[in-house]
Structure formats: C-alpha cells, structure tokens
Amino acid sequence: MSIRETQAWKALEQQLEGGMRDIHLKTLFQQSPRFETFYLEAAGIQMDLSKQRWTTEVREGLLSLARDAGVPDAIQRLLSGERVNRTEDRPALHTALRLPREAQLEVEGVDVVGEVHATLDKMETLVNKLLNGQWRGATGKPITDVVNLGVGGSDLGPLMVTSALTDFEPDDVFEVSTHFASTMDGSQLADFLSWLNPETTLFILSSKSFGTIDTLSNASTALDWISTRLGGDEALIKRFHFVGVSTKPEKMTEWGIDPANQLLFWDWVGGRYSLWSAIGLPIAIRVGMDNFRQLLAGAHAMDEHFRTADLAENLPVQLGLIGIWNVNFLDIRSHAVLPYDGRLKHLPGYFQQLEMESNGKSVTNGDAVVDYSTCPVIWGEIGPNGQHAFYQLLHQGTQPVACDFIAPVNRYNDVEDERFRDDLMAQHRLALANCFAQSRVLMLGDDAVKSESTPPSYMRYRGNQPSSTLMFDSLNPATLGALIALYEHKVFVQGVIWDIDSFDQWGVELGKKIATETEEIIATQSGLDSLDDSSRGLIEAIWRGQTSR
C-alpha cells in the first residue's frame, strides 16, 4: 500500500486544504509564540524549526505518519545491524564505525566493534608515522605531501571535513600537507604534479571496490609520474609511495599495495557514509588521530540521541518530517544549504551526494513506482557568498525554496592578539547578523521592516519562504560529527517514510557501464554503428578535432 493511502497522509492533506496551503508565516507568528515550541537541542546541535510553515497540529500529523511508516522500528533495525539495504541484502552500519571501544555489537556472528577498532588502531599507526616524520619515500626523504585519490564518498567527505577543521591541525608534529584529486580528466592531479616533489609525495588510493576507473586512472598517472622521475623498481615505489583503502584487499595486493599499507573497511559501509572509516585517513593526517576520534564521538552522541529520544524530541526525525511536509504537501522541491562559516564551504556539495544519491529514487522497496515526490534538489553555498549570487531568487523568484541556515555561535575566541581577535569577532557577528536577517526576511517579507509607504512592486518581498536554523557552540570535531550524523539520520527517516532504499545507488551504474563501452569505441574507432545519431556525431567530431592537430 502506498504511504499516500494511509490515514495519517490523508489527514495531512486535509490540514493542507483546510488552510495550511496558503497561510503566511507572518500570520503563524502573529497567532502564538513559536520559538520554544519548535526549538530542539541535542548532542551539541541547536535547531530552530519555528520558521517552517507548520503548526503543532501539522507536527502531530507528521508524527502519526512516521509511526504508520514504522520509523521507530526502522531506527532500531538500522542501529542493530539488520539488513536495511534491501537491494544489496546487507546492513548499513556506518553508525558502528563510531561506536566506542567498550561498546558491544555483534552482527551475524561478527564482532563489529572489535574489527572497527582494529582498523582504527592500524590507521593510527600510519598517521603517527607520517606526523612523526618517520614515513620516508624511496630515496629516504620524509613524506611531506599526501594526495588522496578518490571520487564520490571517497573524496567529498574527507575533503569537506579537512576544510572545516583546519583550525585543529596539531602542533609540534612533522608538517604533512593533504591534497585531493578526484576528476577523471586529470586536471586536479596535473596541477599537483606540476609542483609536488615525487621523492616526498604519498598517494592514498581510496576506493570501496578498488575498481573505480576515475581513481585507478589517476593512480596510474601518479605511478608513472614518480617512476619516470625516480626510476628504480616500480614495486619499491608502490611500497613507499602508495597506501590503499578499500573493501577489497586482494585487489589492492594485485595492484601492488603493500599489505602493511592497506586499510580495510566493509561492504556494509556505503561510500557516502564512509568518512568515519579508514576512508577518513586524510582527515586524521590533517587533524591528528585524537581529533578524528572526537569527530567519531560527536557522531556517536547524535546516534545515541537518534536511538533513544522520543520522536517528538528527536532532531533527525523532526528535520526529516519537516522535509516530508515541504516536499510532499507544500510542493517545495528545492532545498538550499547555507552555512555562515567559510570553513564549511564544501558542506553543500557533501550534502548533495548524501541526500540525492540516497533518496533520489522512484521505486519503492515493494518494487512499485512511487506516486509521490521523493528527494528534493539539494544545492547551496556559503551564505554570505550566496547573498551576492542567488538570494535574489530566494527573495523574489517564482519558485519556493526551503533553506537550512547553519552557523557557529562562537568563533575566534582563542585568537591571542586582542585587537586582531576583536576585529575577527566583529566579522563573525556580522555573519550571524546576516544569517538571522536573511531568514527573517525570507519569513516575513516586507513586514520585516516597518514602513509607512508601500514600495514599488520590484522592491517587494513576498516572504513565506520556510527555513530551519541550526547552530552549535563552535565548529570543532565533535560538533561537526554530530551535524553530519544529524543529516545522515534525517535522510534515513525520509527514506523510511517514502518506502525507498536509502543505501543503494543503482542510478549511477548504467552510465559508468556505457562510458566504458564508449571509451572503447573512441579508442579503437570501431563500433560506432551501434550508437545513436547524436553520440555518433559527437564522437566523429572528437576524431576530426584530435586527428587534425
């Protein structure tokens, strides 16, 4: 049965048609105080949902929908290691990656916690070797630069976290810089290789399957780059200059990764959920293993809240439910992520993959085509930059957009120079003022400013654009971990209600298969007749362009 046929869904539709479709946020704020009603806090995250276009009655209806969809039971099944990834018939146990050492979790006869911490311990050994200046390349010089070769979840998560936590690089360690190359066209790698020293560069091959063509093509280029410049035994170069992170030890060994340089994770870790695993090696190199463990601890705190809190007080559940209301009832299918902290510049891109690869589905777990909308389009930018780019559309455009404003309460408090600290803290106050002002104008429109005259139409603000505001005391490993886990669980809650599998990604597979076949046609110049007219024309244009030079 479709979720639309449940009594809870029909009751929400009745509320929508009974006045909620057209009511303005300014009216809701005139009717009663809202902040205390729609404010929640847990695991270091503060969340204000009062600027969303809902009421306590709508919230109760959404809670009924969640119960009808089996959300409470689904939470326990996820966290206990049941096979919630149905199409691949396996658990989705990213939460196990952040369980403390003393925890106990046995899944299908395997001590998951023991295996996780064994990998973390090996990871710590490698990290300490690098940060102590003890990892030396083939010519005996210490490694100074590490390049992560990965794509998707093997790139976006580590890149986002290392950028966010630059203030937490450890002191009194040997300086090792981290870099990221993901594009299959080689543009990022070509840039790095133009100035890196092959004698002091280490590459991390991060690939769950160890068969991703993007990563392996970059790895082949990197190997040729070092071999050409250093000469010598290729096997020796692989031993001193390459680390592998994968679920496939046999493939890493076949490629030539020394077993001592192999870090493993498990099939039950989805790529976009893998930064908590050994895929997070670049994070640990950048911020040290202690801070990496704090990242895990922050996520675990949110996991525990998700597991134990009542649905009405549960941050991931509430954030997920307001998304359901916006998408399926208010018909808002665009969602902007707007961090007001420059260190979170990669957060919108990270959430794009997390949400759209997880819930960008149109077939239910029962193999039926959905008759309702699922994941909205996720996009965004650092808030102050977005104000000068696309906020025009948010305020005066023709389509509704739900927004998440994200900001730390405190920043720069530990800057030693008093005058410099005051200047920077003033800038942070300015960022917070803009964050709150933008959400206020999106909510109230023209009524945000009292005026005795009516402005011309081109200066009017309609308001009624819903938003959530999420804050934390300061951006640190623990609060960032909790924030990411909050969104992971929000995605899961929505997937349960939409009755879709949030942990597979079959939609990315066909394009990769066709790309392999197409590359063969381009390289061999045979098989063109099997393609459509457009593809044939494009490939022939490539041949003409490349052979004419």
Automatic annotation (TrEMBL):
CDD domains: SIS_PGI_1, SIS_PGI_2. Pathway: Carbohydrate degradation; glycolysis; D-glyceraldehyde 3-phosphate and glycerone phosphate from D-glucose: step 2/4; Carbohydrate biosynthesis; gluconeogenesis. The keyword Heme does not apply. It catalyses: alpha-D-glucose 6-phosphate = beta-D-fructose 6-phosphate. InterPro entries: G6P_Isomerase, G6P_Isomerase_C, Phosphoglucose_isomerase_CS, SIS_dom_sf, SIS_PGI_1, SIS_PGI_2. Pfam families: PGI. It is an enzyme of class 5 (isomerase). It comes from the Bacteria. Signal peptide: none annotated. Keywords: ATP-binding, Cytoplasm, Gluconeogenesis, Glycolysis, Isomerase, Nucleotide-binding. GO terms for molecular function: ATP binding; glucose-6-phosphate isomerase activity. Its EC number is 5.3.1.9. It is found in: Cytoplasm. Its main location: cytoplasm. The active site is at E357 (proton donor), H388, K512. Catalyzes the reversible isomerization of glucose-6-phosphate to fructose-6-phosphate. NCBIfam families: PRK00179.1. Belongs to the GPI family. This is Glucose-6-phosphate isomerase. The gene is pgi.
